[in-house]
Amino acid sequence: AFVNLDWTTTFTPHLLRKDVDLGLKEARELNVAMPVTAATREALQTHFGAAQSKDDPEAYLASDFSALLETVAKQAGITLKSENKTVPTGLETE
Fold first, then answer.
1. pLDDT for residue 88
2. Distance (Å, rounded) from C-alpha 47 to C-alpha 68?
3. Residues near 80 by Cβ (< 8 Å), separated by ≥ 6?
């Protein structure tokens, strides 16, 4: 959960980049402009570059794609802090 800066993997940046690339490829073949998607792809690529400053870049890139929030925050000069709150999963029965 974002509130706890929890990057437990549900979907990796590698898979996101692959899917975005597939969408952009289809758009090119159909001559459809997708400028927002192209810009998103560049922001995602920035995350791959930023991962190189981590102690273990590959492990970091194996975490959830939502860790991209850290990259965007760093570019904006913002330091994120975990709120250490209990967050329900939505799967609770009571």
1. 85
2. 6
3. 5, 69, 70, 73
Backbone angles phi and psi of 5, in degrees to 5:
50, 45
pLDDT tens figures, 50-83: 999 999 999 999 999 999 999 999 999 999 999 9
Q: Cβ contacts of residue 35 below 8 Å, gap of 6+?
A: none
Distance CA(21)–CA(11), nearest Å, equals 15
Cβ contacts of 58 within 8 Å, gap of 6 or more: none
Domain that includes residue 30, residue range: 2-75
* CATH code of the domain covering residue 44: 1.10.1040.10
pTM here? 0.84
Q: What single-letter amino acid sits at 93?
A: T
Total domains present in the chain: 1
Report the interhelical angle of 68-75 vs 35-51 (nearest 10°).
Answer: 90
pLDDT band of residue 93 (cuts 50, 70, 90) is confident
